[in-house]
Here is the input.
Amino acid sequence: MSGKITVLTRKKYLGPSFDLKQQAIVLELESSGDIDMASLWKQISEKLPGLSGSAVPLTIGELYARTFIELQQLGMNLFAREWSIREENGKEIVAVQYIDPQTGDRVNDFVYDWVRDILSGRLFPFQSRYEELEHLFYRSGFGGPTIYSIVEAGYKRNIPMFYLPSEDVFQWGQGRKQLRGRSTVLHRDSIKDTELTSFKDRSKAFLDDFGFPSPKGTLCTNDAEALAFAEEFGYPLVTKPLAGHKGQGVSTNLNTPEELRLGLETARDASTNRRDPVIVEQHVTGTDHRLLTISGKFTAALQRIPAYVDGDGEHTIEQLIDIENSRPERADTPRSALGKIKIDDDLVQFIKDAGHSLSEVPAAGNRITLRRVANISAGGVSVNVTEKIHPKNIKMAEDVARFLDVHVLGIDLLAEDISKPWDESPCAIIEINAGPGVFMHLVPAKGESIDVPGKIMDAFFPTPQSSRVPTLVFNKLDQKLATRITETGLRQKGIEEVGTAAVDGVRFNDEFFSNRPEHIGNIRNVMRNPKLDMALIEYNDAIIQNEGMYHWGADIVVLENPTERERILTRDLLDKGLFIEIDRSGKKVMVSQNGKTSTKMLGRRAAETVVMDMLTPVIAELAEKYYYPLA
Here is the structure.
């Protein structure tokens, strides 16, 4: 093929744009020469199985967009799949939705280089470039399993979402309705209660204070103190770092002074400071369970089984681990049910203590447990047991959550039988966790999925109105009109602060606040205000072209003699939204709502007065519609 493609311009929009309702990369694409679309598509489809068997694109722009979207999936069925194409001045304008901005840029570079190399007959390093993309996305702010699943849950529910780079957190919802956080650590959580769960000794004392079942234990600063505890309470024992996580540095079922000393060293090695004390506590029999509460209500329960392999009489333990790691479920991506089983010193020591070695060939059917801890990140296997848990154990979980102002709480429970009441069967709470991972509930290795990310979003945003504030959008908003609308808003119940993101800067309750170099920064700052009850937002043609939009839905759109590009502001009108168009030359105002359109002649009346007459009752209706007192 002698064809050629050229990207003439490229823009990245952080919110909706003229071409797409989602954040997108928009390209002006030009092609020339002989391009065999069928042959080009065949070569691309061979590398991206998701495209196999699909129709050959009609244009190079369509090929570019479909390749971008499929490549960006990275084999994980990610939610960003929207794209559009239009023609302008003989060029194709291609818009493709992205998730992470940096990864989106790299995907675009990948597609461009790949297509050009195919057209030029050059060899393209597909595998190495693909692995770079995977690594980049996994390390991005969206790449963690829990945070991605929560972002996806919000996206599916049409909840406005903003990434706040200076704070490195996500914001769901607008103004007073907002929820900020990373993963399940949320700004509405008590900082002191969150801190409590990070210190295992304090959280253990907390559990003991309220009579919840927990193993006896103590803090030991040296081996002698640990040995004295063992002498008083007996073996087996458990050692763990004071502020550890994900099971790192934990040793269980220690039965001798020698094993206890080794456990103390393992905990110190995993500690931030080796001089930190180590927790030594009684070993409790039973399997590991994670109970999860959302806003104080029990939501899901998982049994977590330590990583293992089953012998086949042919392969060594090391080979069996490699075979297990090759399973699709252990792809170790942000969307896979299981992590890789990593061969490290802890694993080697654990199987050695059990009388095994990596070179051993276990008999067929002989199960070899590989770790003490059952954490999914350490290769553990998750089993959904939500339907099996006894009501009394559910109440215990909710009772723990009752005393902690933490909205998403993980309770780690050792129990011989989760279906029996905690006070009738061996059972102990070994940890409580603020900000627990939740993806394992969504994709357990065994059992039904529990949509915990969706339940988190539903707990905070049970209705469409509970994530939004009344939003009015304009292409021309002078100070006089903004003042009148603000005053009208402040007269309504539930509206105490009105934010205006005008071209000349931000105002709160008509008082100037600031003006950022980029207008979407102004809009972001208005929506970030945790006291905001109503938003007024102004755009013009140049802002829409250069920066796009950032308000995620409007209740009212008011346009005065709009350009074609400014008319796109009506696209994002919410259900039953009001559209007012002012035609000063024709001295009339056109009104559209609920599929009905009417025209009012201005006569001698000022356009602003006519508009305010229409806006005043609608603002009152919106204030009542959106009124949602937060707990």
Summary: The chain has a mean pLDDT of 93. The longest helix spans residues 101-120. Residues 339 and 377 are 6 Å apart (CA to CA).
